[in-house]
Amino acid sequence: MIEYxxxxxxxxxxxxxxxxxxLVFTFWPIINSFIWAFLDDFSYGGRSISHGELGxxxxxxxxxxxxxxxANFKTVLTDPLFWHALRNTAIIVVVSVPLTVIIGLGIAVAxxxxxxxxxxxxxxxxxxxxxxxxALGMVFATLFHQNYGxxxxxxxxxxxxxxxxxxxxxxxEVTFASALVVLTVxxxxxxxxxxxxxxxxxxxxxxxxxxxxAQVDATPRWRxxxxxxxxxxxxxxxxxTITSFIGAFKAYSSVIAIFGTGRYGPAGNSNLMITVVGYxxxxxxxxxxxxxxxxxxxxxxxxxxxxxxLLQLQISKKRVHY
Amino acid sequence: MNxxxxxxxxxxxxxxxxxxxxxxxTYLFLTLMALYIFVPFYWMxxxxxxxxxxxxxxxxxxxxxxxxxxxxxxxxxxWSNYKDLITGIKKExxxxxxxxxxxxxxxxxxxxxxxxxxxxxxxxTVVLTxxxxxxxxxxxxxxxxxxxxxxxxxxxxxxxxxxVGNYYTFSTIGWVRSDSIWKIFxxxxxxxxxxxxxxxxxxxxFRQIPNELYLAAKVDGTSDFKYLWxxxxxxxxxxxxxxxxxxxxxxxxxxxxxxxxxxxxNSTAANYHLLVSNGLLEGLRNAIDSSGEKSILNxxxxxxxxxTVPLLIxxxxxxxYIMRGVSRSxxxx
Lengths: 322, 333
Prior knowledge:
The structure holds two protein chains of two kinds.
Chain A: H1 8-37, E1 43-44, E2 58-60, E3 63-65, H2 71-77, H3 80-112, H4 118-126, H5 133-143, H6 150-154, H7 176-204, H8 208-216, H9 221-249, H10 253-259, H11 276-285, H12 291-319
Antiparallel strand pairs in A: 1-3, 2-3
Helix pairs in contact in A: 1-12, 2-12, 3-7, 3-9, 3-11, 5-10, 7-9, 9-12, 11-12
Chain B: H1 9-48, H2 52-55, H3 80-87, E1 89-90, E2 100-102, H4 107-138, H5 144-154, H6 159-172, H7 181-189, H8 196-207, H9 211-219, H10 224-235, H11 237-253, H12 256-261, H13 276-283, H14 297-317, H15 319-326
Antiparallel strand pairs in B: 1-2
Helix pairs in contact in B: 1-14, 3-14, 4-7, 4-8, 4-11, 11-15
């Protein structure tokens, strides 16, 4: 049969470009990051100053290091800023993920139950998907502006410092809680589109007979929702929950965008809302090239995400009906 | 609604009322949520057409107004905000500290850079993706499933690890924050060309093409690559279009990598390598803290509009392709 002929050389030809790019820009960085994370005092382009004249450094891929060890992980795990970033990220995740999933599910169920204007609403709900995170972050910053924002003017609370505002002495008035509200409102806004689309396609694939049977038995709406819709949609809910968890754990651009200072907080407190990803990029961009610390931090992020994902899969085994 | 027939008139009335209330509540909920989604767009566009005094006044105006608080629709709208955004606002003669009150934002260069980087990335992605998806879906070779499995596994690794590694790679060859536009374009393009996700996406489409077509082509003596070009690509053209659009949108929204590798601080018109996202943030940094008559919040909103509207136009033009691609991806979420 032709099916079992061998296409070795053709396959090599077709795969070569992809392989080349994957090797250089995917596998090489992964390997590098794993290696650097375990090199003490790795530095690019010759010895770092701390090595002094003592010698004892070794060369690797154009850089030097002192010895193999876990000093980078120690640096990260003893850095108060890292724990601050981790705490911020965890709070963002815990607040925004359930909200987005629940609201997204609600909108999808509502959309699925109507006929008139469905296309119109669907288009509106999709719009955030095709917008620029920075541009719309700036819009939310303007909406929540201390003195000129729509929210404060509308609710008659002009002067309340959501994401900007300083006292006469120049100390920032912005609190973590107020900034978190703005960030959550923005994150939910930004994330809804994708969830609605996925839930809606899931809802449309549910067999109508279940609902007809429920109707014959005069089942109340709420019971229909909890006993039919949610169980049958559970694989989608699991998928969305996991991807939102991962997405929220990598929050970065949205934080940058709502403050508009190029940092993770208002003027005067630039690390207020720093996230783990922000921490990683900060470490990478510092002079002295401490790639090892950034690599160690990104590995820690990877393992946190991995563990949470595995936990979710484990818990869901009992609840998800495939 | 067969059920209604079995109810007595009283219960039927109750049932009908409940149904109507349910409908009303559903529409009410959807309208509220639609407002939540829509208001930021509205506020963005309306604020971009207001004057500074209007933005900073205590009163809430839903449309741009003139000094007597009348909304003269639409001839009092401050279109010159967009001009100011591009040409900048000079300080009054004799004032201290720099020439500009608001530095001109080089939108034409931002758009040019983004367009070119998008073009290169997309072209590269499409060529590589088609070839790889072809190999994975049509050709037989040793270790096919193993290689594909390894490819898929890389999708689970957070992008930050690649960013750290690639940043190093490009630093060592001196391309990061380089003065050469081609080196910067290379840095912005190359890491995103080999996309596992799009390969997976296209492979799924390729696999749906019936085997009989391939066998028929074989009987006629068609070579594998000719078959790919003449049969598979035309059949999968909808998926390829989706990949092109999503890839372009990806570049338009790229923020992290451009911020890290372009030189924002020392960029001049002759030497401007920023893309829209980081160009926007750079140009309007600290606009949020501008106050009083000098507030540039309206310019900030004009800038956001400039970056948002092209994407919305693309969306409405290619709605079908975008929405199809989205439910299978997780690019943003």
